[in-house]
Write a structure and sequence with these properties.
This protein is α/β, with parallel strands linked by helices. It is built from 20 helices and 27 strands. The protein has five domains: 107 residues, 3-Layer(aba) Sandwich (GIY-YIG endonuclease), CATH 3.40.1440.60; 182 residues, Rossmann fold (3-Layer(aba) Sandwich), CATH 3.40.50; 182 residues, Rossmann fold (3-Layer(aba) Sandwich); 64 residues, no CATH class; 97 residues, Alpha-Beta Plaits (2-Layer Sandwich), CATH 3.30.70. The chain has a seven-stranded parallel beta sheet, sandwiched between helices.
Amino acid sequence: MKYVDVVIDNKSNSTDSFFTYKCDDDSVRVGSKVYLPFARGKTLREGYVVSVKDDASGIDEEVLKKLRAVDSIDSEVSLTEEMVRTAVWMRGRYLCRYIDAIRCFTPSGSAAVRREKQDSLAGERGYAEPVEALTDEQEEAVRQIDEAIEGRKNERFLIHGVTGSGKTEIYIRAAKKALGEGRGVIILVPEISLTGQIIERFLGNFGEDSVAVLHSRLSAGERYDQWKKIRDGKTRIVIGARSAAFAPVENLGLIVVDEEHESTYKSDYTPKYDTVEVAVKRLQDKDSDGVLILGSATPSVVTFSRAKEGIYRLIELKKRYNEVSLPKTEIVDMRDELKEGNRSVISRRLAEEMKRQLDAGRQVMLFLNRRGYSTFISCRECGYVAKCPTCGLSLTYHRGKGSGAQTGKLVCHYCGHEEPAPEVCPECGSSYVRYFGSGTEKIEETVRKLFPDNTADRLDLDSVKKKGELKRKLKDFEKGATDILIGTQLIAKGLDFKNVGLVGIVSADVSLNIPDFRSPERAFQLITQAAGRAGRGSDEGHVIIQTYSPEHYAVQMAAEHDYASFFEAEDKFRKFMMYPPYSDIFQILFTSKNQAAALAGAEKWHARISGLLPEDDRRNLFTPQEAYMSKIRDTYRYSLVIKCPKGKRRLYSDIVRRVRAEETEETRGKQDYIAVADINPYSFT
């Protein structure tokens, strides 16, 4: 007889604990998925084993008499001990429930779906780009990484390489070394749109049988089949977006996090984990001792600070692989355009350079991180602004394929609410309804009018809703079937097209105006990454940045490709304000259908946390406020922020966990609001 501690698959704070069962199946292991009776229900529940004992030592005799037995073990699904240890660590690190963390590692898909054989790599072709010789910088990077992999050292590298410096080739060489040592490999990219090109490179170098893919656009059956293939050891390389960090790879020897600065590596859903931290933890495990590689042309301020402290080994690639210089960059002051009568979203200088590049047979990419046709609509007669009835936020106008308001619709980008665009003001009946701001749809319309003889396409979340549409649009541009590609941040990073002569950043101000301490960092990164799509072939590229804030240091330093100066300026600001990396910021979000209940919950937690904090630390606890997005889907939101000084994260986490536990015990989990903690959120919405 075995005795097992189990985490029950039950999303309740009151059951967030280990439950002991007896098990007469000797095959039970840490990580086994089991079916068992729980509470008073007659239906068997799922659970995951976190510890196994061969005898009942340490269990009270009265408790032992009442122990219930595991009914059965799922032979198809199990986790490794390393995965279970990481999940338990995540519960403490991210203030989530055990089961929330364990679910990150488990496959999706019902038993019926599992029986359908799915091929997520169908239609993918491998491409092995011939590399005659590495640059001296690449050679040195490969030497250091190979040495760490061969010596089974738990090392962390930051490759700070300019766009086009050949970071992907280093990843491929590192993966070959890890495979040669019998180790498993995970390659992470920030966006699903970026998996295509890197999959082609890896398929070309390692073959289809060696590569598995994990990301959210796979069907449930595809995800399960990929998970099972990895778990059974049939493939040793996993490529995917954020969730691929939890791939069931045994003997994990290498994790690569490409474009490590991207906010998409921070989960928006419970558990609100940081992908890089999870990668570090998995590779630290006694069953791994693997190597972490972070790569970026614009490392986050936090990551670069850690490299300066020696937490990461810094490798710098200062030259592009093809020896072509970084693109020539111009800043266009859009205030001058307005003064001189140009009200178009495209400046005269950008239009002129687009024509020159297109006439020369080169392609153009235009970047604007704002979807839709117009940002909002308003009545000039009474001041009415169209807002979402459930969120209270301005609705974005989407014009659609026709012309005129009657063909368009107003859309909330937070809850998905849609309604027809009005032809007259719903408030006063006036016909003076006007459209303000510009999105990717409006740019597409403007570009088609300016360049009717050239082909243009748009790539954003609205234009790639059908499966395969994203891949098709990128392929068309790669083959030259599209002359001008317009898009949001989906096209701003990681993509490698040899014939792009010009990148136009239509509005650099979109990122600068986000109410967040990271807005200068995001602006610098997006400008630099978008600019990096130009001149990746044999000819120098050109970048034009349109902005109403040409004097801003983030814009100026991005135009000069000067990361060092940007980091120095930003680091001083962070240190003075005690922002990360000099602190951890806790945000606890209180939500309820009842506004008073959400506020009362925030105030209650504020009082309790204040009472538990040391007196000198109470100044780091801020008064509850309405969240920036104060209402979404008829749900009210209040935010409580704590600025945790460096080195005190465990103390502050323990306090938050204690407050939650006390409240759960008092209310038995039936309070009329939900409180969710997020540590170092990438958005304070």
